[in-house]
Amino acid sequence: MSEQRSTRAVLGAADGDGLENLARVGLVSYGVVHLLVAWLALQLAWGTSSESADQSGALSTVAESPVGKPLLWIIALGLIALAVWQALEVLRWRSGWSASGDARSKAVKKSAKAVAKAIVYAALAVLAIRFATGGGGSSSQQQQSTAAGVFGWPAGRWLVGAAGLVLIGVGIYHVYKGVTKHFLKEIDLAEAPPTATRLVTRLGQVGYPGKGVALGVVGGLLVHAAVTFDPADASGLDGALRTILEAPFGQFLLTLVALGIAAFGTYLFVRARYPERT
């Protein structure tokens, strides 16, 4: 009984205005990061920048601005709120773990999705804090170091390959989500005006496939790293975007992907205005 009361109290905190408002700040912060990555990708496509076109490059750009450090702390705080919110979603679905059939499958999938999002938000928050404190580094180098460390584990090569396949699957799901407009099922637009609904729909239709392609290529690089047993191939988002650039019609393709990532970032701005369906 006490455990149930504790769970209700935690879920009540998750629905509280304070955490919800912080999570909105987090969505806006996450959108800013995507817009900066898109800008760096466009510069990469047109040969006007050598900056890493990934999260570290985006946060480095923020750090170099006149209000860089305070803004980085705001971004980090918002992302931490998003991570906490997603972690609390696991409790929301915990009662379904002991169910059977479709109910259990749905609860497990929702819980796994929430955990994955919480990890991503927390990792990006840590990166923002590092840049705010002057200790930021390259995301690509960190990912290569991580891959090298995992290679030293028992079955590490298979783990890296499996992580790559998961990312490819996530990328494919993002494309599917955008094409089918499945993302609209996650947002409560009942009180949104028609213009806002159209805007969210168009941004999601462009943004999800754009991000999905980038994630799929990141996953492909991880699989290639596992096959070649070379951690240097696990070069993250920056490596993925450079791989797209090296493909036939790479400049055109990378421009399209960059515009898609920018659309996803803008989608997050509008997304922060409306609550999730629960």
Automatic annotation (TrEMBL):
The keyword Transmembrane applies. It comes from the Bacteria. InterPro entries: DUF1206 (IPR009597). The chain crosses the membrane at residues 21-42, 71-93, 114-135, 155-176, 212-229, 249-270. Pfam families: DUF1206 (PF06724). This is DUF1206 domain-containing protein. Keywords: Membrane, Transmembrane, Transmembrane helix. The keyword Ion transport does not apply. Residues 25-89, 113-180, 206-274 form the DUF1206 domain.
